[in-house]
Amino acid sequence: MSHPLVIANWKMNIPSGGISGWIQSEMVSKNEEEDFDNKSSHFKFMGIAPPISHLTELKNLFKFGLLGAQDISRFNDGAKTGDISADMVIDKGCTFSILGHSERREFYNETNSHVSEKLRICLEKNIVPVVCIGESLEDYNAGKTLEVLDMQLKEIFASISTKKTVVIAYEPVWAIGSGKTPTVDEVNNIHQHIKDIVQSIAEIEAISVIYGGSVNCENAKSFFQQTNIDGALIGGASLNGKDFLDIYNDFLETF
Ligand code: PEP
Question: Which residue ranges in the chain fall short of pLDDT 50?
Fold first, then answer.
């Protein structure tokens, strides 16, 4: 079964209003068992990836949804200054990790091969991987989107065989934080293509493809209405708790 997800990626930011201000009253349980169960079910497709330093506070204040890491090390342990391992984020309550975000690729020279190593660690350790792929503006303008995505997918997924859930985030690099997006039809068709390619190069039983790049309260619903868009990865608009909750509720309405 695929895993729909709407993820807040706070990056290296504290959300507006701080963590307690970010959490909306609708997100808090009244502590009655029934309310707790309802909330758990309501928020089961919401993922939040704060900076690691904020995980414990967030977990204490907001008991629902899924906690995630923005990245994990491609090593399991040892002398790797600055890295945080899969086991360490699991200890903090993370159940998913974003991998290969374009900012990791741009500022830390992460390659598809690094992303593939991290993917294998996630699958081994039972962390849901959220693998980011996407083309540059230059590639988009040159009509090379599918070519670039195919290459990324082949380098990351070749010979993967798993019954576990894999989430792929299609994030055109030019759409991240720019206010620009491809059309919903373009994204929908690309997601179908991604599913087909991954099925042809790897054995994965459950694949979800979510979209990331300037998703906001105005455009979210039109993406979620497409059959091949299984959720979203949201940066800027996720820093405001109310906006993120509105987007999440739009997702639930179209689900
Ligand atoms: C992102 O960084 O993954 C992202 C999609 O950011 P934004 O929503 O700000 O475009």
Answer: none
Closest protein CA for atom 7 of ligand 1 = 235
In a domain, 208, yes or no: yes
In a domain, 54, yes or no: no
* Ligand 1 mean position, distance from CA 36 (Å): 30
Note the pLDDT of residue 1. 52
Q: Which residues are catalytic?
A: 101, 171
Domain ranges, residue 239? 5-47+60-254
* Residues 187-197 pLDDT 10s: 999 999 999 99
- Ligand 1 near 176 CB (within 6 A): yes
Please tell me the pTM assigned to this model: 0.97
C-alpha 31 – ligand 1 centre gap (Å): 33
Q: Which long-range contacts (CB under 8 A, 24 or more apart) does 148-156 make?
A: 149/190, 149/193, 149/194, 149/197, 150/197, 151/112, 152/112, 153/194, 153/197, 153/198, 153/201, 154/197, 154/201, 155/111, 155/112, 155/113, 155/116, 156/100, 156/112, 156/115, 156/116, 156/119, 156/131
